[in-house]
């Protein structure tokens, strides 16, 4: 995205420094902000039978929100949490939608981000069905080569749909 119109975003966004393990959105709450990660790592997760299930990671340059909740004003189905210290630009829903209404480049960029997110979820869904945990791990490393240094092993295991012990075995085979 060209920086000439990122200035519109930064003009209305609030710059936040977030400690690790900070919940930015709770399951059941309606999302009212969109975040642009300047530094750090965030994750989306939910609880299933008391187990914490991570289903997506976000890093520098990523926009993150519960897009469904933000758009439809419905309760979020998951939590958004910082994994490591993060610096984000947070923009309120109404300010964001005013920007994309006024600037077609923003609308296009937003649509591309939504399509990218849809693609990621489609890939995750298919990977869970057809790939072994080893293959899912290899895919993750290919997409995020530094993830092992930045994300705790139990979150990675959760994302892969395996136990931390199984992940340890997979890592030892490499």
TrEMBL record:
InterPro entries associated with the record: cNMP-bd_dom, cNMP-bd_dom_sf, RmlC-like_jellyroll
Taxonomic lineage: Bacteria, Pseudomonadati, Bacteroidota, Bacteroidia, Bacteroidales
Organism: Alistipes hominis
Domain Cyclic nucleotide-binding: start-end pairs: 1-117
Signal peptide: none
Protein name, per record: Crp/Fnr family transcriptional regulator
Source taxon at top rank: Bacteria
């Amino acid at each position: 995205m060209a920086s000439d119109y990122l200035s519109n975003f930064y003009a209305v966004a609030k710059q936040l420094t977030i400690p690790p393990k900070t919940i930015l959105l709770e399951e059941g709450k309606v999302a009212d902000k969109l975040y642009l990660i300047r530094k750090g790592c965030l994750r989306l997760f939910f609880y299933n039978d008391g187990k914490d299930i991570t289903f997506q990671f976000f890093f520098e340059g990523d926009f993150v929100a519960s897009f469904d909740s933000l758009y439809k004003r419905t309760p979020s189905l998951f939590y958004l949490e910082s994994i490591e210290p993060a610096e984000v630009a947070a923009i309120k829903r109404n300010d964001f939608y005013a920007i994309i209404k006024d600037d077609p480049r923003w609308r296009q960029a937003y649509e591309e981000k939504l399509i990218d997110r849809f693609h990621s979820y489609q890939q995750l869904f298919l990977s869970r069905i057809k790939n072994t945990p080893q293959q899912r791990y290899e895919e993750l490393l290919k997409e995020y080569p530094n993830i092992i240094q930045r994300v705790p092993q139990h979150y990675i295991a959760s994302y892969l749909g395996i136990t931390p012990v199984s992940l340890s075995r997979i890592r030892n085979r490499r």
